[in-house]
Write a structure and sequence with these properties.
- With 244 residues, this protein is of the alpha/beta class.
- It has one domain: NAD(P)-binding Rossmann-like Domain (Rossmann fold, 3-Layer(aba) Sandwich), CATH 3.40.50.
- It has 8 helices and 7 strands.
- It has a 7-stranded parallel sheet, with helices on both faces.
- The longest helix has 29 residues.
- The protein is globular, with a radius of gyration of 17 Å.
- The structure holds NADPH dihydro-nicotinamide-adenine-dinucleotide phosphate (NDP).
- The site of NADPH dihydro-nicotinamide-adenine-dinucleotide phosphate has 27 residues, from helix 1 and helix 6.
Length: 244
């Protein structure tokens, strides 16, 4: 794998913090040219301070046209991780239409926007590619107060399957990963309460939440040629949560 990522351009969305940040740093370490997309300039500055070979792209992924324009100068991009997402949690009866719009714009629509731009270019150049969408165990299990988040991640899984179907003939593979809780800033929104955390932990056969690296490594595998025949899957990274 070390050699495989040399001279390859990989785009990671939501690379300003959390899983995306760790992934961007790891891929840069493996020799890839990393395009790191995030919304806050401050977070991107901190990322580049850790590895100045990473190219930061500061854009709001909710802005369809600005996102496409921001990506263009970096093409061709053969590897893509659609990782950016937001979590807004409310009881179902209190969900607001604005919550729906934000979650679906960032968590689903941005995947379409970024992947279209990158895949269209690869198809024109007849280059192969691999795309990993970061879904969640929440795509396949109902979690209290997560109605819109769960819906958005179920949409990511559906989108992944159709992208795999339509881009596969162009030798562009598309898969998703479905992590359990990771205590990033996002993870802490839902799971810093001890009672809630204990309830979730009791349903995970490995009895722990995922570490950032537990998620980073399987994503790198799905990007790499080691997974050359894997297309259209949703890979749980959940210590067995979805198996129970
Ligand atoms: P964080 O909240 O820690 O980081 C999210 C990243 O997405 C940030 O870099 C943020 O940018 C970026 N982002 C959010 N909105 C936008 C936007 N409009 N435009 C550009 N960038 C944006 O999340 P995690 O690292 O925890 O999550 C990463 C992925 O993993 C997500 O898809 C999440 O749904 C999924 N996941 C997370 C789990 C968890 O428990 N943490 C569990 C299962 C799945 P900025 O820093 O600039 O604000």
């Amino acid at each position: 794998t070390e050699n495989e990522f040399q001279n390859k351009t990989v785009c990671v969305t939501g690379a300003g913090r959390g899983i995306g940040k760790a992934l961007a740093l790891r891929l840069a370490e493996l020799g890839a040219k990393v395009i790191a997309i995030s919304k806050s300039d401050e977070n991107l500055k901190q990322l580049v301070a850790l590895n100045n070979k990473i190219s930061p792209v500061c854009v709001d992924l909710c802005d369809w046209n600005a996102t496409k324009e921001a990506i263009k100068p970096h093409l061709p991009i053969q590897l893509l991780v659609n990782n950016a997402a937001v979590a807004i949690l409310h009881p179902f009866l209190e969900v607001k239409p604005e919550d729906f719009d934000v979650l679906f714009n960032v968590n689903v629509r941005s995947i379409i926007c970024v992947s279209q731009e990158i895949a269209r270019d690869l198809i024109e150049r007849k280059l192969p590619g691999s795309i990993v969408n970061v879904s969640s165990q929440a795509s396949a299990a109902g979690l209290k107060d997560h109605s819109i988040y769960c819906s958005s991640k179920a949409a990511v899984d559906g989108l992944t399957r159709v992208m795999a179907l339509e881009l596969g003939p162009h030798n562009i593979r598309v898969n998703s990963v479905q992590p359990t809780v990771v205590l990033t800033e996002m993870g802490r929104i839902g799971w810093s309460d001890e009672t809630k955390a204990a309830g979730m932990l009791s349903k995970i056969p490995l009895h722990r939440f995922a570490e950032v690296d537990d998620v980073v490594e399987p994503i790198i595998y799905l990007l790499s040629n080691r997974s050359a025949m894997i297309n259209g899957v949703g890979l749980p990274i959940d210590g067995g949560f979805l198996a129970t």
